[in-house]
Amino acid sequence: MNVAISFDVGVSSFPILVRKMERSKVKREGIHYTPPGLASFLADATVRHLPSSGDRIEVLDPSCGSGALLYAFAQATAPKLRKHLVLVGYEKDADAIETTRTTLAGLDVAEVVLEVRDFLELDGVDSFGSGRQLGLFSEHRNESSRRYDAVIANPPYVRTQVLGAKQAQALAERFRLTGRVDLYHAFTKAMAHVLRPGGVLGLLTSNRFLTVRSGEAVRRFLETEFDLQAVFDLGDTRLFSAAVLPVIVVGKRRDRLNSARHICTFVRVYECRTNESHVAFQSPSVLEALRTRKMVGVVQTDAGRFRIERGVLQPSDGASIWSLSTPEYDEWLQTVESRKAFVFDDISRIRVGIKTTADEVFVRSDWTELPDEHQPEAALLHPLITHHKAGRWIATPADENLLVLYPHTTRNHKRVPIELNDYPRAKAYFIAHEARLRRRHYVLESGRRWYEIWVPHQPSDWRKPKIAFPDIAEEPRFFLDQSGAIVQGDCYWITLKDNCDPDRLFLMLAIANSSFITKYYDIAFHNKLYAGRRRFMTQYVKRFPIPQPGSPIAGRIIQHVKGIIKHGPSSKSEQTVNGLVWEAFGLSEEIAR
Predict the structure, then answer these.
(1) What does pTM read for this prediction?
(2) Domain 348-584 belongs to what architecture?
(3) Is residue 169's pLDDT more than 90?
(4) How do strand 85-91 and strand 111-116 relate by DSSP bridges?
């Protein structure tokens, strides 16, 4: 779906009619508008790889909205080829189709075909369905289905929880999707199926799939079925009106007769958060800077300062995240690898905090103000660590009255729910909120009791010394907790495996809080949200490297961290530990970019 938004790059005479949509519809239907400048950039990147064709060049937008992408594609095509274009658009919204018809009127193309239909419901787009089990290259595909020379698309982006369980399950079965289903996953498979071998896909979607475990199926599919040509991670450039951070992927449908892999360029653009960074050049906009293909470094635009990085897509088997590879980054990582003895996952367990899915019931700071008969027994109320307490090295002061009602205990070394009859006041409190708790149907459907927490933990683990850290932070904020408090779901926590030297927790704390790990994260993972906020998730932290724990330099790091925990951090003590961490990996300390 598309809408006209003022932009300083691209089609200056874009005849788009703006349509206002309610926020609820945007969320429910995954409508994220493509600004004209971004549509133009995507079209240019796609047309650049358009295969040579005969008298007709058939181009599809499977969710065409008001026609921005089809219009931009025509504008990006050389005049001598434009007259051979057949522009095809599908859209469920009849009003949008009429807008598209107006948008594309007057273009000197061979034909415009527009239909008010759901692309995913068309015959021949679901050969991935469990009923047919046909691959893209099957000789028994429905050849009567239309095949295209190019597909350009900004498909709807709707997550499982918005789709609903039934629709998500139906999509998963029909398109053979695994993991967390999103509507654009189905569109990506369907679009690939209707492309001719050698046909080009220009896809604009959320960049989330690049770096998260749930994106593995999409990465694997794209790597298997396409010769990827270019990836543009546009990050937090705010080129898109949606909350999602956009990525452009351009690829050519693979043909088994030509299995050679193409080197895929990878361009990454994020806001530059360091004012001291040298400005390499000026440009009116990020997209204008990207059109100059060799520009790298910090660009000052009217919208702010951004860093442009260029390299190639690091080859993977789909399971690995997609990362940007450059000779400099590769050499740096090789040095780290040569000094690495373990990773965090080898010696520790990393997990997300508890998730109640009803915090207004389970988490309060006014327990003592409740009527006596509704005040849960003290044995069930526990201190809670949230992101508000997340400092570096040690916890920061927060609401000490904030307690969580934890309805689980340990029996025969196993976590089990409490028996409500054993805790009459807690029982009365829970019954007062029973209607709210029973609305969590997923708890009941999993065979759990209605008053249980959705994601609980083993109570005996809380008492172990642990490192806690917030899920989202601009800079690392890892801290040691020895209080036995429970960790909330907006944080993660680390405990050592059994029989592991307890001093290793201090070594891990030093590494996790260092500027070294910030650079390591940005090279190896680079999952950033707006304003430079990093996602410190288990899948990344488990891969943090550890130098030889028994080395003299590791011993010095451990002693300094113990001093920080005992006396509190200072600029000098942090700088000392930071420098030692860099040295432990055979590198010189660098100034954060």
Answers:
(1) 0.88
(2) Alpha-Beta Complex (3.90)
(3) no
(4) parallel
